[in-house]
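Sanity check

After download, print the first record. It should look like this:
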Amino acid sequence: MQAERILGGDLRALARAATAVENRTKEAEALLAELFPHTGRATIIGVTGPPGAGKSTLVDQLARALRAEGKRVGIIAVDPSSPFSGGAILGDRIRMQHHYADEGVFIRSMATRGQMGGLARGTLEMAMLLDAAGREAILIETVGVGQDEVEIARLADVTVVVLVPGMGDDVQAIKAGIMEIADVFAINKSDQPGADRLEQEVRANLLLASDHAKLDTPIVRTVAQEGKGVVELLGAVRLIKDKKIRNMAGLWGPRLCEMLRDRLLERMPADVIRAGAEAVGERRRDPFAVVEEWLRDWYPKPS
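Expected structure tokens:
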């Protein structure tokens, strides 16, 4: 019944399901399994980059451009966790308040809750839910904590890395894995001094990439505050999606690995992990023996 309401466009049912997905309940997993045949229509766009690059403003403008085309949009804003409640610090939802009068835009903030990689656990499942609910584009903004936000590339159909001139050593902002995950570079605030230099540095780094296909990575200049370059950025995203859609196994392989990892970790009791950590920390056991014991006891090989 809940699945039918979600497929029928019931926003309250969608909001309740989103809460269940974020809390990772068994009911949510069963619901997603029921809804899965209705997924696969949305374009999942990941937006990542260093703090201060203007990711939230760019996501806001992308949503506006998509709505102008009549597309229904889902936004997953991954926020830092509150040190007091563990919930999301709702910075992005505050910045996107003008979308709340529009039922064609569904915004959900998710707390990282200590999860590394710039995403919250369950982000993939949330994207699947919004896809099934008829959102034709899903924008996922990573938390923006630095250079470790490479997990988005496993989840998104297209990953947009947002850079901005004038943030010190520009090359440093595109190292440590960020360079490799970009399907499209957006040089935001490109009306500021240093935009030409930054684009040259990006192109020079692309020449050094081991993957020669990266040489063709689009670089789009935007001024998100004014909406400039947003339509061109959407065009570049769609060209990349059209290329990737031919290899669905390539898209789903990393996603399934991520889901498997999450579920294996969820099965491990916290006290078992804590006891293993104490034994290794006190040098009573080596980490390899502890991990092998966990594999033997909790994930035995089928006979």
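If your output differs, re-run the checksum step. Summary of this record's structure: Residues 81-92 have pLDDT under 50 and may be disordered.
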